[in-house]
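Problem: given the chain below (290 residues), write out its structure.
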Amino acid sequence: MVSAFYGRTHPSLPEVIFGDLVKKTLTEDLGSGGDITSERLIDKELEISAEIVAREPGMLAGDSVAALTFKTVDPNLVIDQHVFDGEVLSEGAVVAEIKGLARSILSAERTALNFIGHLSGVATATNRMVAAVANTESKICCTRKTTPGLRGLEKYAVRVGGAVNHRFGLDGGILIKDNHIAIAGGISNALELVGDTGPDIGLEIEVDSLDQLREALELGAKSILLDNMDNEMLVKAVRINDGQASLEASGNVTLGSVEAIASTGVDYISSGWITHSAPVLDFGLDVIRR
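Solution.
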């Protein structure tokens, strides 16, 4: 069963999503004075070649963001991309070569590497989690536990890693959580207040007990989030559900726990870890003077 909450495809990344962010982060790094070290040490006419190199294995994400970072500093830089988003990196792999003014390349270096390091880290962590459940029917999805300002990029990296996106924001679907239920006075009241959402708005309700699950099913819920249930309870939940609704397991999902969770038979497993705690993938910029 596929819910309207979950996006599957790995689309191209439109520049409108990250163009302003690139400018903002470059402004943060360059400040009001620019790269004063490079201006003092490097002749303004000197041209070099530099390679972005992976220092460890993983999966690339953020190639276009890094490229725009360099191009924003200097539109005349020439970028030869060797590896593209979604491709597996070996240690020492040359991701891209940048040619042009040395000052420009070094001024953009850290911001560009910050972007691809973080996004590739998200894609790599996601891909490892997807691989861990490959022999099951469960699908990995992300959450709204993202870095402020980076949600679009991080959710893109999740898709690059092979997982699916949960809703992008509060306007992306109705998710009735425990606090909503408490304020509404119970599951029945909450669902009644929401009413008919129509075919275009996803509706999911969170439950934290098997009794709540039974009540939600009796009321016709078709997408149910099983919050912080242990694996034994998840097995029982899947049995009670018997295919009536799409089931999503959530709560403290890590690379070490995800395979066992998937073996319970849930449809989706949501993980905040893949965005808020994924280790950065290490990249470096190696300069070769012409």
